[in-house]
């Protein structure tokens, strides 16, 4: 029996497939949705990122009013997928995002925001 794939396995495998669709890797826009978006360039896939983010918001608002929470999963999957296309275009991997989240682990958002404000004030010579 094959082991259950971890979240990281699935993201890494998808990132490999997306990378294989890059124009520099010979991705075929006739045969692949990812290759088609990558060939069109950043405006095309960034537009999709914006649209999918809006769809996540709409699904969450629906769920708040008694709609199906499963729809949020569906829309977040679309959003992550299109974000991964953007990452691939810029030579980045899901592991880079995970590393950034790991770096933030244990730092309260409130603390981090206060530190950022203090640094900005210092930078402005206040
Ligand atoms: N995870 C996905 C995935 N999620 C969503 N989509 C596609 O994303 C597209 C956009 O979704 P929308 O809901 O916005 O659909 P739409 O409004 O018809 O799209 P547009 O006309 O605006 O482009 C749809 O065509 C979906 O099929 C995906 N297409 C591919 N993958 C993965 O990427 C791999 C490579 O795909 P290809 O490059 O197409 O072979 C696949 O094997 C999958 O693992």
From TrEMBL:
<keyword id="KW-0028">Amino-acid biosynthesis</keyword>
<dbReference type="InterPro" id="IPR021130">
    <property type="entry name" value="PRib-ATP_PPHydrolase-like"/>
</dbReference>
<keyword id="KW-0547">Nucleotide-binding</keyword>
<comment type="pathway">
    <text>Amino-acid biosynthesis; L-histidine biosynthesis; L-histidine from 5-phospho-alpha-D-ribose 1-diphosphate: step 2/9.</text>
</comment>
<keyword id="KW-0368">Histidine biosynthesis</keyword>
<keyword id="KW-0067">ATP-binding</keyword>
<dbReference type="GO" id="GO:0005524">
    <property type="term" value="F:ATP binding"/>
</dbReference>
<comment type="similarity">
    <text>Belongs to the PRA-PH family.</text>
</comment>
<keyword id="KW-0963">Cytoplasm</keyword>
<dbReference type="InterPro" id="IPR008179">
    <property type="entry name" value="HisE"/>
</dbReference>
<dbReference type="GO" id="GO:0005737">
    <property type="term" value="C:cytoplasm"/>
</dbReference>
<protein>
    <recommendedName>
        <fullName>Phosphoribosyl-ATP pyrophosphatase</fullName>
        <ecNumber>3.6.1.31</ecNumber>
    </recommendedName>
</protein>
<keyword id="KW-0378">Hydrolase</keyword>
<dbReference type="Pfam" id="PF01503">
    <property type="entry name" value="PRA-PH"/>
</dbReference>
<dbReference type="GO" id="GO:0004636">
    <property type="term" value="F:phosphoribosyl-ATP diphosphatase activity"/>
</dbReference>
<dbReference type="GO" id="GO:0000105">
    <property type="term" value="P:L-histidine biosynthetic process"/>
</dbReference>
């Amino acid at each position: 029996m094959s082991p259950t794939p971890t979240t990281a396995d699935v993201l890494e495998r998808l990132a490999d497939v997306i990378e294989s669709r890059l124009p520099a890797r010979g991705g075929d826009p006739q045969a692949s949705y990812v290759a088609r978006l990558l060939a069109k360039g950043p405006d095309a896939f960034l537009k999709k990122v914006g649209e999918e983010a809006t769809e996540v918001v709409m699904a969450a608002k629906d769920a708040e009013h008694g709609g199906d929470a499963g729809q949020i999963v569906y829309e977040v999957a679309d959003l992550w997928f299109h974000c991964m296309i953007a990452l691939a275009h810029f030579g980045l991997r899901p592991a880079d995002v995970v590393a950034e989240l790991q770096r933030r682990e244990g730092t309260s958002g409130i603390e981090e925001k206060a530190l950022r404000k203090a640094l900005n004030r210092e930078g402005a010579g206040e």
